[in-house]
């Protein structure tokens, strides 16, 4: 009897059994770019689109929201409530650290549901490594969907630095 048990255990170990969990519940971790580079009208349209899409969710599905700008901020933990708040006013919108938002979303992902990340952004990352964050999500079997925010500024000029003397005479060329 012991020999049979040992042989059975060896065969089971050599077969490399895999434990698969299935779940009918889905959690969508929404990462929303709230930086100032995105026009406010476009941000509102994206929120309206999300609200409309969420009306068709199953009752057991969950939503979480992570706002990103110069830092990631959890706006809403995973729950059945589908309301999305306006921009988190504590965020300074000077930067877009998209990788931080993806990492924060993975950190709040519930273990008992299937998880998807929805990135709402124009894709202009100013700091961090979004590709590395996406690789980490893929390694954890978390797909990332993107709702691209497209806009165009015509005749935009950006100054990195403007140098001029502190004083000038009326006839002097500056």
TrEMBL record:
- Organism name: marine sediment metagenome
The protein's name: VWFA domain-containing protein
The record's InterPro entries line, in alphabetical order, gives: vWFA_dom_sf
């Amino acid at each position: 009897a012991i020999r049979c048990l040992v042989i059975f255990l060896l065969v089971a170990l050599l077969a490399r059994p895999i434990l698969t969990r299935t779940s009918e519940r889905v959690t969508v971790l929404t990462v929303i770019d709230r930086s100032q580079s995105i026009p406010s009208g476009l941000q509102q349209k994206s929120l309206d689109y999300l609200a409309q899409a969420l009306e068709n969710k199953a009752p057991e599905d969950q939503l979480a929201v992570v706002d990103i700008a110069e830092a990631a901020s959890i706006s809403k933990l995973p729950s059945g409530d589908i309301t999305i708040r306006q921009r988190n006013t504590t965020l300074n919108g000077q930067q877009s650290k998209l990788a931080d938002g993806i990492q924060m979303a993975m950190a709040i992902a519930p273990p008992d549901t299937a998880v998807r990340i929805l990135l709402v952004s124009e894709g202009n990352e100013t700091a961090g490594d979004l590709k590395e964050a996406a690789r980490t999500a893929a390694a954890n079997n978390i797909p990332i969907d993107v709702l691209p925010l497209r806009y165009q500024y015509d005749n935009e000029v950006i100054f990195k630095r403007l140098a001029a003397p502190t004083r000038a005479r009326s006839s002097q060329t500056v």
